[in-house]
Amino acid sequence: MKTEIDLIFENVSDQIDKSWEEEIGFLQKLCQFPSTLGNEAPIQHFIADFLEKELDLSVSKVIPDPEKLSSHPGYSEPEWTYDERPVVIGEYRAEGDKKGKSVIFQGHIDVVSPEPVSFWEHDPWGAEIVGNKMYGRGTADMKSGVAAMIFALKAVRDAGIKLSSNVIIKTVTEEECTGNGALSAIEEGFKADAALIPEPVLGQKGLIAQVGVIWVRVKVNGLGAHTEKADKAVNSIIESYKMINALLDYEKELNSQKRHKDFAEHPHPYNINIGKIHSGDWPSTVPSECTVEARVGFPPGVNPQDVKDNLKSYLLAAAEKDEWLSENPPEITFYGFHAEGFSIDPNQELFDVLNVAHMAVEEKPLEVGSFTATTDARFYNLYYDIPATCYGPTGEGLHAPNEWVDLDSVKRVTKTYAAFLLKWCGYSNVIIEK
């Protein structure tokens, strides 16, 4: 025999089916905004208007303030301004006695560059649908999750259900480089009893651990000259190879150590990526300077500053072994990600309720896993005693050409989130006046 919550969820699930074309259109619109670093304002204003007009939420906009955030242990140093780049917060405020618990749904709207665009078979800003896949930059990472969390709450409201606790919808900036967008919203007081982030990192599994991440910049000086005297010059690009090799040696050392329990079965959890190299301005000129930028992963439970100090010492020690670099040591600096890893216990109410919601849609138990990169979930788990996990749609091509999201999974995640809202927040079956 079906329970009351089963019948109510069926009603909400039907509402999601009815509004599915609207949700797809909303997702396409999100994915057509080229919301790379520094270009997030248009999509944020679009989302703010939607939350206010279509969901009747109280909407706030927060601009991250580096001066206010700089003393926080989770703050990451940016090299750009936050002017006109808001974080958007929409609040559903429950009326009367709070019978359930409050929750934050948080998604990031910043995306990485789609370059080189020539590698794409579909327009990276076109949100083209082929079969059950939508192609484009940010379709999987993670605008589909943003659409799912918004339309889950919208379906509950459109079905005439009043939730018994507050829901906060956040769309944040800079998840891809600092996390300062998420941090600023929490520091402004937008908190709840738990947080769900619809990242695609594990698809429809719950996240229980992620690595820490820092960004490093290594500047190597050479001795420039006309190519005619190249044999007497020092090519900074060639000298930079030695620092790149040292970074890769450091990666081997990280992965040769005893693994953190949540990554014990992973063959290579701590990745160092050589992400950018810049040098030279003329083929016939020996370059005087070469800058290498890399991303460094490390185990949970390790202070990012300790990794920075250790890595800097390691690179300088490697430079000491080289004739040129020992006399002309590289300049090593850090910016962007200063992100600590985390590990949480899945034996808690957040995962229990997510499991119930997952089973209502997927008809099988929720699985959990670990992630070898970082997400904004770290802030809640590490600094605010707010349990947080990631659970989102499935797709491929994150940070790569031809990114796509499985639209069937987007609908299922929307329904899972709706089921979570009913169970976590509680409800009363009251028609909402519009």
TrEMBL record:
<comment type="similarity">
    <text>Belongs to the peptidase M20A family.</text>
</comment>
<keyword id="KW-0862">Zinc</keyword>
<dbReference type="Pfam" id="PF07687">
    <property type="entry name" value="M20_dimer"/>
</dbReference>
<dbReference type="Pfam" id="PF01546">
    <property type="entry name" value="Peptidase_M20"/>
</dbReference>
<dbReference type="InterPro" id="IPR011650">
    <property type="entry name" value="Peptidase_M20_dimer"/>
</dbReference>
<dbReference type="InterPro" id="IPR036264">
    <property type="entry name" value="Bact_exopeptidase_dim_dom"/>
</dbReference>
<dbReference type="InterPro" id="IPR002933">
    <property type="entry name" value="Peptidase_M20"/>
</dbReference>
<keyword id="KW-0479">Metal-binding</keyword>
<dbReference type="InterPro" id="IPR010182">
    <property type="entry name" value="ArgE/DapE"/>
</dbReference>
<dbReference type="GO" id="GO:0046872">
    <property type="term" value="F:metal ion binding"/>
</dbReference>
<protein>
    <submittedName>
        <fullName>Acetylornithine deacetylase</fullName>
    </submittedName>
</protein>
<keyword id="KW-0170">Cobalt</keyword>
<dbReference type="GO" id="GO:0016787">
    <property type="term" value="F:hydrolase activity"/>
</dbReference>
<dbReference type="InterPro" id="IPR050072">
    <property type="entry name" value="Peptidase_M20A"/>
</dbReference>
<keyword id="KW-0378">Hydrolase</keyword>
<feature type="domain" description="Peptidase M20 dimerisation">
    <location>
        <begin position="208"/>
        <end position="322"/>
    </location>
</feature>
